[in-house]
Amino acid sequence: MGALVVVLAAGIGCEKRASAPEPPASPLSRREDAPAPRSTGVIRGRAVLRGDLPKRRKLDTRDLGRTILSEDELVDPEDSGIQNVFVWVSRGGDRAATSGGDVVLGQREYMFRPRVQGAVAGQRLVVTNGDDTTHNVHLRPQRGREVNVTQPGLGRRDEIPLEATGVIHVTCDLHPWMEAWIHVLPHPYFAVTDEHGGFVLPGLPAGEVEVAAWHEVYASQARGLVLEEGETETVEFVFERQR
């Protein structure tokens, strides 16, 4: 088993950045003409914060009449694990692998759910409205055309094809504090960190790979490693929060 530590630094006042994208944990399938699968390994690890922990802020919700707290920096106060870090194989892996099913983006209690997720190019995004109010879903992709859809009321459902790879920043023009990020990749080797900053990338073809980590506030970084057959490599991404 190997171990790799990556240190990332970014100022908290920096503009949010959309870096190179990648996909979610969906069932894998293979094209009929694809080569036989190679031996596989696993990459697991955590994203943690070094330094002072951020405090959640009350968002300006105008005349909504409710308090909503910020979610752009969710850090576990016990173990400093960072939630919603997108981790993916940025080089290497099996590009013949695909992912089936739809990618779902919900709107509940005036927030997008999930805030960060991955998809494979060619999948379909299903956007649902779980609030008894009108929402607007504005997709601003890194590549390709923007999509702007109004969803008037509870139960509305719209389907949007995800054709190009890249990061999609999603906002609601009616409720500007609502944000989400969808990373569209050419393969399904990606994960989003949980509330403790943990992630697992299973079933990766053995060999040389590059693993990258993205966060909407902190800078992105990538590191290379060699994944041996049947082995588990451990990676810890350490983000530094500068004052």
Layout of strands and helices, then pairs:
Elements: E1 3-11, E2 28-30, E3 40-50, E4 86-91, E5 97-99, E6 103-108, E7 111-113, E8 116-120, E9 124-129, E10 134-141, E11 147-152, E12 157-161, E13 166-171, E14 179-185, E15 190-192, E16 198-205, E17 207-214, E18 221-227, E19 232-242
Parallel strand pairs: 1-19, 3-19, 6-9, 8-14
Antiparallel strand pairs: 2-5, 3-16, 4-15, 4-17, 6-7, 9-12, 10-11, 10-13, 13-14, 17-18
Report what the structure shows.
There is one protein chain. The chain has strands spanning 3-11, 28-30, 40-50, 86-91, 97-99, 103-108, 111-113, 116-120, 124-129, 134-141, 147-152, 157-161, 166-171, 179-185, 190-192, 198-205, 207-214, 221-227, 232-242. With 243 residues, the chain is mostly beta strands. The protein has one domain (3-33, 40-242): Immunoglobulin-like. The strands form 5 sheets. It has a 5-stranded mixed β-sheet with strand order 8-14-13-10-11, with no helix packed on it. Strand 10 (134-141) and strand 11 form a beta hairpin. The protein is globular. Residues 6-37 have low confidence and may be disordered.
